[in-house]
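Q: DUF4199 domain-containing protein, please. Structure only.
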Amino acid sequence: MENQPISIKKSAVNYGLILGAVLALMTTLMYVLNPDLFTKWWVGIISFIIIIALGIVSVAKAKGLLGGIMNFKQSFTVYFITVAIGLLISTVVGILIFNIIDPELAAFLQEKTLEMTAEFLQKLGTPQAEIDKQMAKMAEQDNFAIGTQLKNYVFSLAFMSVIGLLVALIFKTKNPNPLN
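A: Structure for DUF4199 domain-containing protein:
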């Protein structure tokens, strides 16, 4: 019984590495094939779904390793480890691409994001003075700076943890033999 928590943590780490590899591959392919994909909203939705799906698969696998009996803490821990590792790998790849390999891409994407936001605000009928104010505020932010990416990692992990709490509630089971 003592080895089971270690095996579920090892499983969670493995799934975290898989998640990180998938997210890193997505980022690398977007960089190589079409950097404009970084500005598409649906790419974020796909990433979000992949993160949650692999977190759930990791918890389901761990539950199987435990013979179908898993408490809330074990379930959440497995989900959290998987997502934390996956997002960390993805963040490191983003830092490498946008700060070391191709900083010009970060500037290009920042400018493209400003243009898209201005167009969107114009379509909404936002007054030009308000658009200018918003653009000036956004221009001051460097969304690809190392600090910003690390901050985004923390916020993403916090948000995914809330989802992890829900996943843990769904997967937890009571031990039918409480003496074990």
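A: Brief note, in case it's useful. The first helix runs from residue 3 to 33.
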